[in-house]
Amino acid sequence: MQIDLDRDVERVVNEEVKAGRFESAREFIDAAVKHFLIAREFGEEEARKLATLRAELLRADQQIDSGECSEYDERTLGRLFDEVEAEGMRELAGERGDPK
């Protein structure tokens, strides 16, 4: 199938590909049609959530490919969990009005 896009839509497609968010115009159009189908079936909010997740996963893949990532082992994961728990407890104390 071949389709003609109006100038504005073609510009957006090209900008998205140039920005690296999609590898090709075809990939962009495929994603746009899937977004439309999900929105039609489940609502725009669900389509937005999936689009956000897709963008986050793409960014994560790009970070991994460029070496912008950290590997975790049992010790570093334990430290990360401790930090997250401590931050959560500070926020919870703030919501309750407890002194920190």
Give the averaged pLDDT, no decimals: 88
Tally of structural domains: 2
Beta-strand content: under 5%
List segments where confidence is low: pLDDT < 50 over at least 5 consecutive residues.
none
The Cα radius of gyration reads 21 Å
What is the first-to-last residue Cα distance? 63 Å
User: Helix/strand/pairing class, anyone?
Assistant: mainly alpha
Order of helices and strands: HHHH
Largest sheet: none
Relative helix content: over 70%
Oligomer: single chain
Describe what this molecule looks like in 3D.
Helix 2 (25-42) runs antiparallel to helix 3 (44-65). The chain has helices at residues 7-18, 25-42, 44-65, 74-96. The protein starts with 6 loop residues before the first helix and ends with a helix. 0% of the residues are buried. The chain is 75% helix and 0% strand. The protein has 2 domains: 1-69; 72-100. The chain is an all-alpha fold. The chain contains 4 helices and no strands. The model has no long low-confidence stretch (mean pLDDT 88).
